Each structure stands twice: as C-alpha cells, then as structure tokens.
Amino acid sequence: MSDLVYKLIPQDPFLELTEAQTAQLQQAVAEAAPDATFTETERVQFVDAGAEFHTIHCPFCNSELAPMWWHKEMERIYARAQGFYDLSVTTPCCEQKTTLNDLVYDWQQGFASLVVTTASETAVAALQQATEMTSGTPWRLIKARY
Q: Is the pTM of this model over 0.90?
C-alpha cells in the first residue's frame, strides 16, 4: 500500500528567507501541524510527486513533452556544486522560453530549497496559510505517492 505525502514549496524556486523569517516559519509550521517538518537545503532541488510522475506538458501550447527532452534539460542545467541554479529552457514544441518549474506536470511538481512536509491532508490548508503569510509569497502544493 502506498502513502500520500503533502509537500509545500514556494512558487519562486529561489526564494531565500532571512533568519528571522526562517524562525517564524518554523514556529508557524509547528503550530499549524505538529507532525509537519520544515526543511531548508543549500541548493535548489527537484521536488517530485513520487510514483505519480507521468506526463509533462508545455505551458503555452499544451503539447506533451518527451521525457527524454526533460531528462536532458535536467542534466544540462544541474550543477553538482550549486544544484539547480538556472531553470531556463526553451520548449521544443513551440520554442517558447520558460522554466522547468513552470512546465505543466500531471501531478504538481517543482523546484525549491524550502519544503514543508506533512502526512496529514487536514493540515495542508493551515500549513499553506502559515507558509504564505510568513514568507509573503505563494506556495504550491505537491502531493507525492510513495
């Protein structure tokens, strides 16, 4: 049997919080959902949907993007020392400039160095409100199945 894990990440993959904001966010997350965890990494990482990673579409023309193209772009822009530092790509279908973060994943996915995680679906709304109020920016929900 698989489990769902709920992850919240900032819409802006490169969002950096001050020390005060980080402390506020940790407090807000603990108050909103005691089982939730807040993780901050040094590098921007890909935050996936686990077993629910199926298709990727162009945000402009809605064409399905080949997984091999996506993998090559991931390899091209990943720097071992810096992680993902520039997510810029040009879509192969309609040659529009976008980012890997802005592609349309069939189950939401994205890139971030800040992640709030919970196993409790009922805690998601409170966590979303806490993260957005503390950081002053929108966060996206990723449901991952493992």
A: yes
Residue in the block written with tokens 């040659």 = 95
Q: Which residues contact 131 (CB under 8 A, 6 or more apart)?
A: 8, 10, 25, 28, 29, 116, 139
The rounded distance, in Å, linking the Cα atoms of 63 and 84 is 24
Tens-digit pLDDT profile for residues 10-49: 999 999 999 999 999 999 999 999 999 999 999 999 999 9
Do residues 44 and 111 touch, judged by C-beta distance below 8 A?
yes
Identify the sign of the CA torsion 114, 118, 119, 120: negative
Tokens of 122: 């009922």
- The β-bridge partners of 145 are 4, 50
Residues 6+ apart with CB under 8 A from 143: 4, 5, 6, 7, 49, 52, 107, 108
3-class SS of residue 40: strand
Burial class (CB in 10 A: 0-12, 13-18, 19+), 88: exposed
